[in-house]
TrEMBL record:
<feature type="active site" description="Charge relay system">
    <location>
        <position position="219"/>
    </location>
</feature>
<dbReference type="InterPro" id="IPR037045">
    <property type="entry name" value="S8pro/Inhibitor_I9_sf"/>
</dbReference>
<dbReference type="InterPro" id="IPR045051">
    <property type="entry name" value="SBT"/>
</dbReference>
<dbReference type="InterPro" id="IPR010259">
    <property type="entry name" value="S8pro/Inhibitor_I9"/>
</dbReference>
<feature type="domain" description="Peptidase S8/S53">
    <location>
        <begin position="139"/>
        <end position="611"/>
    </location>
</feature>
<keyword id="KW-0645">Protease</keyword>
<dbReference type="InterPro" id="IPR015500">
    <property type="entry name" value="Peptidase_S8_subtilisin-rel"/>
</dbReference>
<dbReference type="InterPro" id="IPR036852">
    <property type="entry name" value="Peptidase_S8/S53_dom_sf"/>
</dbReference>
<feature type="active site" description="Charge relay system">
    <location>
        <position position="551"/>
    </location>
</feature>
<dbReference type="GO" id="GO:0006508">
    <property type="term" value="P:proteolysis"/>
</dbReference>
<keyword id="KW-0720">Serine protease</keyword>
<feature type="domain" description="Inhibitor I9">
    <location>
        <begin position="36"/>
        <end position="114"/>
    </location>
</feature>
<feature type="signal peptide">
    <location>
        <begin position="1"/>
        <end position="23"/>
    </location>
</feature>
<dbReference type="InterPro" id="IPR000209">
    <property type="entry name" value="Peptidase_S8/S53_dom"/>
</dbReference>
<dbReference type="Pfam" id="PF17766">
    <property type="entry name" value="fn3_6"/>
</dbReference>
<dbReference type="Pfam" id="PF05922">
    <property type="entry name" value="Inhibitor_I9"/>
</dbReference>
<dbReference type="InterPro" id="IPR023828">
    <property type="entry name" value="Peptidase_S8_Ser-AS"/>
</dbReference>
Length: 769
């Protein structure tokens, strides 16, 4: 190397460099345009480089790219991580990212001793968020979680520092098998179980059912602690995601209603749970379950949620995990907050290195056992038929698999079950490769053997490698490696591929889902009765687990809703939901519009609704779209439901429907416009906004519409003279599509804007065939 003789001097300089001396290190005219990055390097490449120390190698690596280490290299890491920190210019980044041996380049970030990551990601720990006062106010809010029960020994249910339960709380801590009444306290204020419907459906007994609120599944404990878990220091899953775990509303109370059992959740039990929760005095209900595409009067969750909303209880429901297919969204009633899932800026990197080519493909994993730091033979389809490519139970041939890394296609059976199948027949490791259905979505799992999950692109590359090696008569080889936990992943958030999508098949005139929240790789409390995979053969036990699903995103919104309810006790559930929706955002941490992990394509409101929840902005939304119980009744009338069907939903004996009503006129914070199959079809909707901001407030409308539609709003200015004032506006949508038979869904936005607030609503346009 031309400047190799300079390395000892460079390294001596670096050893003397103090953290505060960055300007000296960069001391030239390009200081103002540099930014510090952490560059993670491949340890295997370090060994192959034969440098006397990592610091020598890092300096030499920069020099090989014509980046002067004397001016740019800040630190070398070798114990905590393999890599270095450098103050880099923008044109250095592509050089490093394309360089062999470089695994990842992340921008430096200000970090604190912090949480399961989602409170920070949501801005709940920012100085601008009035958390101490909100925590104190939320002591009076009880979040009812309908799920698989609760593990009361979880440290997340510690009531230290909390006052006694609020006076309005009427709930109970029901004794059950392995669940004494003393299981509850000041954080977990109530626990009940409902199994009659389940037992009736299972011959009066129901196998493996214990009459107890105790959670032996883990799902219920995870969702409850996500919503309102107390702060727990040094929480992790076997070393992954280490930090302080805490729920969204750590000052709020939790009441657990066990309505789900090993074989599922019965509608009768769910309705009983909602009924009891309302009588007990919950302020928020969180349901990470149920809800299909039936009319609302046939949907027990919708019916129960209507009663709760009418009583002033905010109800959040998961959108479902049937994505990325369209028209799959569940829990679509307009009186519930339907929550889809997005990613965090935290990752759990792992890699698959292929054979003699040395190609290193990125994936994720939560595997925490002994690593397999060596190349091993790889097999794909180690069985007698194509089912073996899915690694279904009984399809793998032990003779073909033993001692090898097995490539498994994602789909049909559970991800962790595939790993258990591979391990049971002697496989040494697994690569779990996405197909088109999951695209580039990466979901980490705590597998029982060394395993790495990769996206479709990497999966296809590995498949092609295996096929090509076999065609040449060679043995495909691979090595798995694991990188722990990293922060600052970009882009984030990204819509999860599994998150269910609109349009709403029950009522196309209501846009669903409503919003997204963190739902991928979420750390929260766990049961002591199961290992992190949930498999019977998993003997590991951990106080926390990392899992994914809209089940995880739902309690994030439930917890944030509890904070809003504490801050604004007079707001209706509809007002709280409106605040969450109209203040949400649709730009990721690279300042780009949201992407969809299903194919890495741009996402749209059928995937993310109004956007990603932003708790800080939701506290002061400026305006809200409020909806009364009577408004919902008129909405049900517009669906041409019979009076008896409307009564099923509303429990009202006197139903009086107006002569003319349209579902699109429901005062919803979003719009879904359905054009009939004819050119220049016109649709006119009305909305009403309530001022919850300053007494004197003036808003101007801002419209973003696609070329396929013209949009006219009247009036274009709203002048509010007092707090609580309501003003109406009307929107005329005109289709400009010449051939509606060929029209595809399109999207736009209607925003009311002043110097303090942007009150934004998504608009979805569809054309009937």
């Amino acid at each position: 190397m031309e400047h190799a003789h300079l390395l000892p001097c460079i390294l001596l300089f670096l050893l003397l460099l103090l953290p505060g001396d960055n300007a000296t290190a960069n001391g030239d005219s390009d200081v103002s345009s540099t930014r510090t990055y952490i560059v993670f390097m491949d340890a295997a490449a370090a060994a192959a480089a034969h440098h006397p120390s990592p610091a020598h190698w890092h300096a030499a690596h920069l020099e090989s790219l014509s980046i002067d280490p004397a001016r740019h290299l800040l630190y070398s890491y070798s114990a905590a991580a393999q890599g270095f920190a450098a103050a880099l210019l923008p044109d250095h980044l592509p050089l490093l990212r394309g360089s062999p041996g470089v695994l990842q380049v992340l921008p430096d970030a200000v970090l604190q001793l912090h949480t399961t990551r989602t409170p920070e990601f949501l801005g709940l720990l920012s100085p601008a968020m009035p958390m101490p006062s909100l925590d104190a106010a939320s002591h009076d809010v009880v979040i009812g979680v309908l799920d698989t029960g609760v593990w009361p020994e979880s440290p997340s249910f510690s009531g230290d520092g909390l006052p006694p339960p609020p006076a309005h709380w009427k709930g109970a801590c029901e004794a059950g098998v392995d669940f004494p009444p003393s299981s509850c306290g000041r954080k977990l204020v109530g626990a009940r179980s409902f199994s009659r419907g389940f037992r009736a459906a299972n011959g009066g007994v129901g196998r493996r059912v214990l009459a107890s609120p105790r959670d032996r599944d883990g799902h219920g404990t995870h969702t409850a602690t996500t919503a309102a878990g107390a702060a727990v220091a040094n929480a992790s899953l076997l070393g992954y995601a280490n930090g302080t775990a805490r729920g969204m509303a750590p000052g709020a109370r939790v009441a657990a209603y066990k309505v789900c059992w090993p074989e599922g959740c019965l509608s009768s039990d769910i309705l009983a749970g909602i009924d009891a929760a309302m009588a007990d005095g919950v302020g928020v209900l969180s349901l990470s379950l149920g809800g299909g595409s039936a009319p609302y009067f046939e949907d027990t969750v919708a019916v129960g949620a209507f009663g709760a909303a009418a009583a002033g209880v905010f109800v959040a429901c998961s959108a479902g995990n049937a994505g990325p297919a369209g028209a799959t969204v569940a829990n679509s009633a307009p009186w519930v907050a339907t929550v889809g899932a997005g990613t965090l800026d935290r990752g759990f990197p792992a890699h698959v290195t292929l054979g003699p080519t040395g190609a290193r493909l990125a994936g994720v994993s939560l595997y925490a056992g002994p690593a397999q730091p060596a190349m091993l033979p790889m097999v794909y389809g180690g069985g007698r038929d194509n089912a073996s490519k899915l690694c279904l139970s009984g399809t793998l041939d032990p003779a073909s698999v033993r001692g090898r890394i097995v490539l498994c296609d994602r789909g049909v059976n559970a991800r962790v079950e595939k790993g258990a199948v591979v391990k049971a027949v002697g496989g040494a490791g697994m690569v779990l490769a996405n197909t088109a259905a999951s695209g580039e979505e990466l979901v980490a799992d705590s597998h029982l053997l060394p395993a790495v999950a990769v996206g479709k692109t990497a999966g296809d590359r590995i498949r092609n490698y295996v096929y090509a090696a076999a065609a040449r008569g060679n043995k495909p080889m691979a090595m798995l490696s694991f990188g722990g936990t990293v922060l600052g992943v970009r882009p984030a958030p990204v819509v999860a591929a599994f998150s269910s999508r609109g349009p709403n098949t029950v009522v196309p005139h209501v846009l669903k889902p409503d919003m997204i929240a963190p739902g991928v790789n979420i750390l929260a409390g766990w049961t002591g009765a199961k290992g992190p995979t949930g498999l019977a053969k998993d003997g590991r036990r951990t106080r926390f687990n990392i899992i994914s699903g809209t089940s995880m995103s739902c309690p994030h919104v439930s917890g944030v809703a509890a904070l809003l309810k504490a801050a604004h006790p007079n707001w209706s559930p509809a007002a709280i939901k409106s605040a969450l929706m109209t203040s949400s955002y649709t730009v990721d941490n690279t300042n780009s519009s949201f992407r969809d992990t299903a194919g890495s394509s741009p996402a749209n409101p059928f995937a993310f609704g109004a956007g990603h929840v932003d708790p800080h902005k939701a506290l002061s939304p400026g305006l809200v779209y409020d909806i009364s119980t009577n408004d919902y009744v008129v909405f049900l009338c517009s669906l041409d439901y019979s009076v008896s069907h409307i009564r099923v939903v509303t429990k009202m004996s006197n139903i009086s429907c107006p002569q003319k009503s349209r579902p699109g006129d429901l005062n919803y914070p979003s719009f879904s416009v359905v054009f009939r199959n004819k050119p220049k079809h016109v649709v006119r909707y009305r909305r009403e906004l309530t001022n919850v901001g300053p007494a004197m407030s003036v808003y101007n409308v801002k419209v973003s519409s696609p070329a396929s539609v013209s949009v006219k709003v009247s009036p274009e200015k709203l002048v509010f003279k007092k707090l609580g004032q309501k003003l109406r506006y009307y929107v005329t949508f005109t289709s400009k599509v010449v051939d509606p038979n060929r029209a595809k869904p399109d999207f736009g936005w209607i925003s009311w804007v002043n110097n303090q607030h942007v009150v934004r609503s998504p608009v979805a346009f569809t054309w009937t065939m």
